Backbone:
């Protein structure tokens, strides 16, 4: 028997696999039934708890502002003598690429065209302004507050207080050390299921984007057939499994560096070669609308936004960000050793939000302006070919299509590989006993198990249940994750209060 096997936490590794297998089988034999079940469960959660998703995200922003100015903000994660794992640039590159995955490449272009095609009453006057403002809402400060709260709690617990590499560490400030022995494995297992659902949804979206791009680039049928999706997903899974096997300091670091540079270069190209003046004017108007409507739209109280629209878009996004958040928090917290709490908030909340906003202006803003200038060419592509066709329709309006389309396809591929690499690394470490600050890499075999599980789940669901089905399933994982983070936020508040009253951390 291999010496690593006794150290596997089977109580964490095995339970998430059963519901994923059930979902995959249902998608094969009764995809309509699966979507119906998932839709009913998703509607039930959003109808009753949509307000909690919205208020908790907003509350996290306020909490982080207090932490930032508190004495806790000056403390060094891991103690005053802690050494840094990464340079500031490497840290930002890995953080940005891990948290955005294929989201900004796929939804950053397709989502604003959805919004401008069918805006709610609040956006009917200036639909393009509403569309870009909503993009800022869904992809900047509010969702990154979720990641930052969880990542900070884990970093402090793991490095500064010697807690286990477990999601129960997020609850230790509230529930004490007993949380690790009473239900800690159950918390990890539930969050693993949530993340695999979320990662499968992202991989499904990424595979559709690649399928649409390949069809546009090489010609042929634009439809995403199961065989084509299987080949695309198989290539992505092989790539991120190989990269994950090399660990943080090699595969993840190298991939994220190339990925972030590619993001910046492509965004700059689209921004400069597109209708620059019109895009800047739209961005200014959207930024002003974002500021004015930030509170009511965050809280779901804008009278111009119908409840069904809010559930389908904003509620879905908050739930999906929550589904990714627990495991992402482990990974982001692991990167932070040697930096102050204040710098952690800057990198994970402010810098990532600014990067996301810049991307949305370049791609989302340009898409909206060009759609208006071409009498709805991008809207027509969305209606005819689905969201995966919009990116190629955008690039067709710009010079150098042969090169930019290829670069876009490579970035879609790299972006998911980078994010999956990071999360598979954290997921696998979560399944091991005795994971510590200097031994946070799991065996390659465990990483392969999760890589194959994510790939098979994504392929079955997106091929037979469609993107709607996989989005609904990913939404379900966000609910238990939200409850975990709400308890964790109470603990972060307690730590912050103690720093004020005692003058230390």
Residues:
């Amino acid at each position: 028997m291999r010496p690593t096997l006794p150290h596997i936490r089977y109580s964490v590794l095995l339970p998430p696999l059963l519901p994923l297998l059930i979902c995959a089988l249902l998608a094969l034999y009764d995809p309509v039934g699966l979507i119906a079940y998932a839709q009913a469960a998703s509607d039930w959660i959003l109808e009753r708890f949509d307000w909690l998703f919205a208020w908790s995200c907003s509350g996290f922003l306020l909490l982080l502002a207090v932490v930032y100015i508190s004495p806790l903000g000056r403390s060094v994660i891991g103690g005053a003598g802690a050494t840094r794992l990464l340079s500031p640039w490497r840290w930002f590159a890995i953080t940005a690429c891990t948290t955005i995955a294929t989201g900004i490449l796929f939804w950053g272009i397709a989502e604003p065209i959805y919004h401008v095609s069918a805006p709610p009453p609040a956006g009917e006057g200036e639909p393009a302004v509403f569309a870009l403002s909503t993009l800022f809402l869904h992809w900047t400060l509010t969702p990154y507050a979720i990641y930052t709260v969880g990542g900070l709690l884990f970093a402090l617990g793991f490095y500064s207080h010697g807690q286990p590499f477990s999601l129960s560490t997020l609850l230790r400030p509230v529930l004490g050390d007993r949380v690790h022995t009473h239900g800690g494995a159950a918390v990890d297992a539930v969050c693993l299921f949530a993340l695999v659902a979320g990662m499968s949804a992202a991989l499904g979206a990424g595979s559709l984007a690649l399928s649409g791009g390949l069809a546009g680039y090489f010609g042929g049928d634009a439809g995403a057939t199961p065989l084509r999706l299987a080949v695309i997903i198989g290539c992505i899974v092989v790539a991120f499994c190989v990269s994950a096997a090399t660990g943080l300091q090699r595969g993840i670091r190298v991939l994220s560096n190339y990925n972030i540079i590619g993001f910046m270069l492509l965004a700059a190209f689209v921004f400069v070669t597109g209708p620059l003046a019109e895009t800047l004017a739209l961005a200014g108007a959207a930024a002003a609308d974002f500021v004015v409507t930030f509170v009511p739209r965050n809280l779901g109280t804008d009278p111009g936004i119908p409840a069904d629209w809010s559930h389908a878009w904003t509620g879905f996004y908050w739930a999906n960000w929550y589904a990714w958040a627990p495991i992402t928090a482990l990974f982001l917290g692991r990167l932070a050793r040697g930096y102050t709490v204040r710098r952690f908030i800057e990198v994970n909340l402010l810098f990532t939000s600014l990067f996301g906003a810049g991307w949305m202006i370049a791609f989302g803003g340009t898409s909206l302006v060009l759609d208006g200038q071409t009498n709805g060419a991008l809207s027509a592509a969305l209606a005819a070919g689905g969201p995966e066709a919009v990116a190629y329709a955008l690039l067709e309006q710009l010079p150098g299509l042969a090169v930019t389309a290829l670069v876009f396809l490579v970035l879609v591929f790299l972006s998911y590989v980078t994010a999956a690499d990071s999360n598979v690394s954290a997921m696998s470490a979560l399944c091991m006993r005795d994971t510590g600050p200097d031994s946070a890499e799991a065996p390659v075999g465990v990483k392969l198990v999760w890589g194959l599980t994510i790939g098979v789940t994504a392929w079955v669901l997106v091929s037979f249940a469609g993107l709607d089905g996989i989005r609904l399933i990913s939404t379900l994982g966000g609910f238990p994750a939200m409850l975990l983070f709400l308890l964790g936020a109470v603990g972060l508040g307690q730590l912050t209060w103690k720093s004020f009253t005692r003058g230390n951390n």
